User: What shape does this take?
Amino acid sequence: MGKNTRYIKTEVDNTPKILHLLSCNLCPLLTYDDGPKVSRCAKYHSITTNITDNNIYSYSAQGDCTVPIKQVDIPDWCGLSEGESLVKATGDMFVKDGHNSYKIVHNIYQNLVVMSGLCVDYDVKLMKLVSGSNKNAISFSYNRNRALPERTTTYSSNPTPTPPVPTLRTCSCCGELLEDVSRKKNFGMCPTCWEKHKDDKKVKEFAFINNFRLKRAATWTDESYKKIKEID
Assistant: This one.
């Protein structure tokens, strides 16, 4: 997961909520163009560009809607609030409206539930955000990153010395194939995810379940499952 997080007032399960964004992926301001394979912010931008990622080849597709699967890290120049208190103070709610557009709903001031992006995903039509209990299956058009298997260190049999192929394992938190991941350490989280979320019990529970699955040759999943035991 990226280093930046933001809060935004939007709809989840057709109800106004405050969503804690861990990446740009669930943000209603995100737009994606599968021609040049770039994602952009429809509202905010840096001095020169509004591109948030220019190398996205993994995406979900439903009709004319496409949504990146690859994590799109929130840029430093993002204009959304870094704290939920400021979001509660404004009446503007942002809602996805069509493939590459959004609408603003004004005067939403009631006391709203704050939800983590770990518990939310797009519905089957890739138009609305829904909580895990209401999530429908999504058809994945192409997923280059997660199609890659985990691999252990190997050496070439060629007489010419070659460097070893590094060990890559799936991080139980962000789902990326990375070095320095151990199934027996930090619930299978990569060093970056561990440092960022080691004090977040909910994220550790999410990683614990994925690590349990990965130990048994199952695939990483971003679905939220019922907790099966307490973890420390």
